[in-house]
């Protein structure tokens, strides 16, 4: 875990603070002040007084300092967030188990409590301070969970792209398995936060409120669909989900690549092991964007069971389009829920 010292127990942080204060006073008194000024200008009385003055310039170690707005705003927090992100990506590749993930969550909480105590931001037993620690640790884990789900999806998509020529960023890929794993992992993290609160004897944090009021939403929220929209609507500009809360069919995979030939784009879909491939014939229609955007519902409807309205409802939230459509409609500048005009 690099720079974060997780193995040091925080049994009695209050006593550790008092000990640190005494040690710092002694260090201040041991400064060789004759090296700071000419010898002739300092007698023993002045040296003693200056030693006391130097210590007074140090922070008051017995007094708790205000908690910062974010515990992840310094180097320690930045390094921890990077490590959490790496850990979550390893979790999605199967290198990390659920038990190891929960244990790592606890280690991060303990390490952060030790850090904020060393910064004199907490006395070590303040209920609100400890809630803040657990809440912010949860927020970072939950955010990195959504990013890791998106990253795993995109890596699979890149492999599919290589099968279709591997050109640039003119493709999109959706694997509903990552939607479900993202939600399941979030529940694991919520349980880990609750267990940590119980161990510290503090009220549980409100994870829903944390997600609702988070500032980490520029690249999507804490769910798979909003992260997917950020990647493929706002960055790539090739597809969009109208309602980000829509629940996909299980074991559903979808790949689309715009293509550069007259034959149009390539569309591939898989559901429960069954596959289907089709061409998407985009065309130019005067000054209109009609022909530059399609709904997979119209292209894949017959692939799904006729009576399964939930599947068709999910597909109706999808649109795929060309670079030209993205450029002229400015859809890549629109975040969150948005329904595209299909010109039907």
Structure description:
The chain has 344 residues and is α+β, with helices and mostly antiparallel strands. Among the domains are: 13-17 and 61-165, no CATH class; 224-333, no CATH class. The chain has 11 helices and 7 strands. The protein has helices at residues 13-29, 44-57, 75-92, 98-118, 127-163, 176-200, 207-212, 224-235, 296-300, 309-315, 323-329; strands at residues 171-175, 239-241, 252-257, 265-271, 274-280, 293-294, 318-321. The strands form 2 sheets. Strands 1-3-4-5 form a 4-stranded antiparallel beta sheet. Helix 3 (75-92) packs antiparallel against helix 4 (98-118) and helix 4 (98-118) packs across helix 6. It is elongated and about 80 Å long. Residues 1-11 and 36-48 have low confidence and may be disordered.
Keywords, separated by commas or semicolons:
344 residues, alpha+beta, 4-stranded antiparallel sheet, 3-stranded antiparallel sheet, 11 helices, disordered N terminus
How would you classify the helix and strand content by structural class?
alpha+beta
Radius of gyration: 28 Å
Strand order of the largest sheet: 1-3-4-5
Total count of helical runs of at least 4 residues: 11
Biggest sheet features: 4 strands, antiparallel
Low-confidence stretches: 1-11, 36-48
Beta-strand share of residues: 5-15%
Q: Could you say which overall geometry the principal axes of the C-alpha atoms support?
A: elongated
Mean pLDDT figure: 81
Give the N-terminus to C-terminus distance in angstroms: 55 Å
Report the order of strands and helices: HHHHHEHHHEEEEEHHEH
The helix content, as a percent range, equals 40-55%
Number of strands: 7
């Amino acid at each position: 875990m690099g720079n974060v010292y997780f193995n040091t127990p925080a049994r009695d942080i209050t006593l550790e603070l008092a000990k640190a204060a005494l040690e710092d006073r002694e260090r201040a008194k041991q400064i060789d002040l004759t090296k700071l000024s000419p010898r002739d200008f300092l007698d023993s009385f002045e040296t003693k007084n200056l030693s006391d003055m130097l210590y007074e310039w140090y922070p008051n170690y017995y007094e708790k300092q205000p908690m910062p707005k974010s515990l992840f705003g310094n180097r320690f927090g930045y390094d921890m967030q990077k490590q959490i992100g790496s850990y979550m990506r390893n979790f999605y590749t199967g290198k990390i188990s659920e038990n190891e993930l929960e244990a790592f969550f606890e280690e991060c909480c303990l390490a952060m409590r030790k850090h904020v105590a060393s910064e004199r931001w907490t006395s070590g037993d303040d209920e609100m301070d400890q809630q803040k620690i657990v809440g912010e640790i949860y927020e970072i884990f939950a955010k990195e969970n959504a990013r890791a789900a998106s990253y795993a999806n995109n890596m699979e998509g890149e492999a599919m792209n290589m099968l279709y020529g591997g050109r640039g960023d003119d493709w999109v890929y959706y694997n509903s398995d990552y939607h479900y794993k993202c939600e399941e992992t979030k529940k694991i993290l919520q349980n880990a936060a609750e267990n940590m609160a119980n161990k510290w004897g503090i009220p549980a944090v409100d994870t829903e409120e944390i997600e609702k009021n988070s500032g980490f939403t520029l690249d999507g929220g804490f769910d798979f669909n909003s992260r997917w929209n950020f990647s493929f609507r706002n960055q790539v500009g090739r597809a969009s989900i109208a309602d980000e809360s829509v629940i996909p069919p299980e074991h559903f995979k979808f790949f689309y690549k715009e293509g550069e030939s007259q034959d149009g784009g390539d569309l591939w879909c898989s559901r429960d092991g069954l596959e289907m491939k089709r061409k998407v014939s985009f065309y130019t229609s005067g000054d209109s964007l009609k022909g530059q955007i399609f709904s997979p519902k119209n292209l894949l409807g017959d692939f799904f069971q006729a009576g399964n309205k939930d599947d068709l409802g999910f597909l109706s939230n999808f649109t795929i389009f060309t670079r030209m459509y993205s450029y002229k409609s400015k859809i890549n500048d629109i975040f969150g829920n948005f329904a595209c005009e299909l010109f039907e």
